[in-house]
Amino acid sequence: xxxxxxxxxxxxxxxLFVLVGLGLIGGLVxxxxxxxISKKLPQELVVKVEKRNAQAIIKAGEExxxxxxxGFVLQKTKIRTEIKQDLPxxxxxxxxQTEVAWxxxxxxxxxxxxxxxxxxxxxxxxxxxxxxxxGLLVIFSSQKEMDFQLDSLQFxxxxxxxxxxxxxxxxxxxxxxxxxxx
Length: 182
Fold this sequence. Notes:
The protein is α/β, with parallel strands linked by helices. The chain is built from 3 helices and 11 strands; from the N terminus they run H-E-E-E-E-E-E-H-E-E-E-H-E-E.
């Protein structure tokens, strides 16, 4: 049994070496979230590739960075038009990976609540300001649970819609959200 595992292990090393040698993986390594290679008996090789998906654009100074949901930088440029995707923009002066990853995760989750983020600013290590497509400005706290804040946002927005009121700003940093109406 150990001999069989050793042979399979050597086989996978050779396959990976061949894939890299052919250029099938080489340049793509940075865009891969995961790569799984398995052998399905008797003679089948299964390769599963999960690529990183762009979630947002960071504008830091004069440079633009395309990032995924974990804050991994996929592209860097000084010219905004070189980025082909229509992604929300995060404006920051300086950043840590933790802040960027939290913000990117927020931007990914906010889409599930049927909001479209247009512009995002990391105000500090604790506060993130998001401008939504409906002209709504929302301030989040990275110190509070993200899902709870998103649920509150959805509840406040739907209640205002029922009441026929237009919201200008929602501040979710506090225990009781602060809502400013137009």
